[in-house]
Request: fold
Amino acid sequence: MLSWLIPVIVIVAILVIIGIWYWATYNSLITLNVRVDEAWSDITVQLKRRADLLPNLIETVKGYASHEKSVFEDVTKARAETLSAQGPAEASVAEGHLQSALKSIFAVAEAYPQLQASQNFLRLQSDLVDTEDKIQAARRFYNGGVREYNTKIRQFPSNIVAKNMHYTDREFFEVPDTAAISEPPRVQF
Reply:
């Protein structure tokens, strides 16, 4: 009579253990996914902050170098591209274009000593450097989250849950031309 009870208890215990493991794995994947989304949000906030600084920087430099129209157009175009980027891949390309445009505007600024002495220009430059540092920090945090998430969905046995829930790899935020972003834009005095 009790001989059937032991196998039933063992089967129920195994099912409970599998259920708890599945639940814990699912929750950890959700946590990692949300962390990556949060980190991406941090990057977009900093990219937006930089994009908001650029019109002020352009106007300040324009007052001294109004004949440099193409430089200002390039920065404006790169700013728009950054703001409209969807996802890490597009943002990476836009980031490279913006870095090139910023180098051009600072090259123009170097030709105007009175601009380099302007308190408004110096404040904008300082804000921009601060924002660039924050973008790099947010990028590192995002890429760390993506690395952790991608590792988790590939490791056995959590990859079983990830496949069932249709989780896929997330993209790293990588800039094609890493030399372009290795340092924040600077003006040489």
